[in-house]
Each structure stands twice: as C-alpha cells, then as structure tokens.
Amino acid sequence: MTEKQRTEFFEVFEVFSKRTPSAAMQYQFSLLAPNHELAAVMAQENFMRREPVADIWVVKRSDIRKMTEDERESLARLDNKDYRTTKGYGYLKKKWREYEQGMLDEKEILSWGEESK
Which of 18, 24, 66, 85 is deepest in the core (most CB within 10 A)? Predict the structure, then answer.
C-alpha cells in the first residue's frame, strides 16, 4: 500500500476518556483507523489493558471544529458576568449610602414650613 493510498484509507481519530463516571473527560491520544467502529475498538484495547475506564469517546479529527477569531471576539462581550457573583453587588453599599444621605427626615421637612411663614 502506497503512502497516498494509506492516507486516503485511514483517518485520524482523537481519543478522550474518563476514569470514573463523575470524572471529567480528558484527551488521551490520536490514532489512525479506517472507520469509527475500528477506531473505538483500538481505543478500548489500548485503555482496557492499562487502567480502568468509565467512558471513551472517539472523534474523527475532521469533525472537530474550533472557533474563528471573530467568534472568540464575540465571547469577550459575554465575559462580564459579575452580576452572578456576590462581589458583583459590591457597588450597592455605596449607592445605598448615597440614597440614605439624600433622604429627608421629618424634622427637615417640617423646618421648610417654618421658613416660609
């Protein structure tokens, strides 16, 4: 089999796995296989003899899509999520103080009436 035939026949697959059902999925390695089924079998054979695995994902490299520069820039405007954390409300103490200082008490209101007499 020539190099050109090999590259046309085999595809590159990326393998991800997690050790326990609650663990995060982690990238492991790439492999060459003619189809998804054989890639999954090769990934299982590689892992099952080394360590316990709860799940394995096998994804064709050509199916993985990364974000464009424009898409990454659009994420910047979504990054302001201070309102979701308690520190995002830190400015309210200052606003409340300004509001209280601006409030009028009963004596001040009654004093206005005295001045006009």
Answer: 18
Burial class (CB in 10 A: 0-12, 13-18, 19+), 53: middle
**Structural class in CATH, domain 3-65+81-110:** alpha beta
Two tokens at 50?
Answer: 């080394």
Q: What is the pLDDT of residues 86-100, one digit of tens each?
A: 666 777 888 888 877
For the chain, domain boundaries: 3-65+81-110
Give the chain's end-to-end CA distance (angstroms, integer).
Answer: 109
Cα separation, 93 vs 106, whole angstroms: 24
